[in-house]
Amino acid sequence: EAGVTQFPSHSVIEKGQTVTLRCDPISGHDNLYWYRRVMGKEIKFLLHFVKESKQDESGMPNNRFLAERTGGTYSTLKVQPAELEDSGVYFCASSQWVGGSPLHFGNGTRLTVT
Amino acid sequence: AQTVTQSQPEMSVQEAETVTLSCTYDTSENNYYLFWYKQPPSRQMILVIRQEAYKQQNATENRFSVNFQKAAKSFSLKISDSQLGDTAMYFCAFMKHDQGGSEKLVFGKGTKLTVNP
To answer: Is B18 within 8 Å of B35 (Cβ atoms)?
Structure first.
């Protein structure tokens, strides 16, 4: 079984540019999550999809962040325009059910905004 | 809001010895789950162990076990017979039970564990 995959693994962009991160969850997992770890801080929740619907987007920092999950399969997270404080590691995770189902994480995308 | 505290930013242990990582949390919820995740240098977050709050029995997974003290809101991880491959960042995480909503993880800041040969 393939795990959660994220692309790219690293991205370096200039302030003001746009970046799109992609996540492919484990096949059959309806729940897809985005998390972010800014240097030296805790890993923070961004949002949660159930299939193609946004179940909870309370962690999205501002309207420069847009997440989509068309067709309930892979998801993208777009940052436009990027700011310096957006630098960090963005993790995607998926799970099969609710009720304390463990989340399976991808390797993360390290985003550096210069 | 829930918070998770890992008071040990870094720890080290000799190979084959036992080490305990501490974690405390704050919540008013009664039904929840607790997790330990491991992030080795490869960066992939790997589930180590999971505990259901309504279960009094401590979870175990091979060399990994927890000491879950619900009243004290404590959830420590014990690693027995430490191996070099256990070197990683360890994150404690809390998840509120929410069958119809969003079960999101709240993480601690992590403990960097180094196993020395």
So the answer is: no
| DSSP secondary structure string for all residues of B11-71 | EEEETT--EEE--EEE-S-SSEEEEEEEE-TT---EEEEEEETT--SPPEETTEEEEEETT
pLDDT at res. B40 = 93
Rounded average pLDDT over A70-93: 95
Nearest CA in chain B to A106: B44
Contact status, residue A47 vs residue A113, Cβ threshold 8 Å: no
Contact B108 A45 (CB under 8 A): no
Top residue of A98, A101, A107, A109 to mutate, by most chain B CBs within 10 Å, is: A98
Residue of B nearest to A39 (CA): B109
pLDDT computed for residue A1 by the predictor: 66
Query: Which residue in B20, B36, B19 sits closest to B108, CA to CA?
Result: B36
Compute the C-alpha angle A55/A59/A62, nearest 5°.
Answer: 110
CB distance B102–A55 less than 8 Å?
A: yes
Helix or strand or coil: residue A105?
A: strand
Q: Report the residue count for chain A.
A: 114
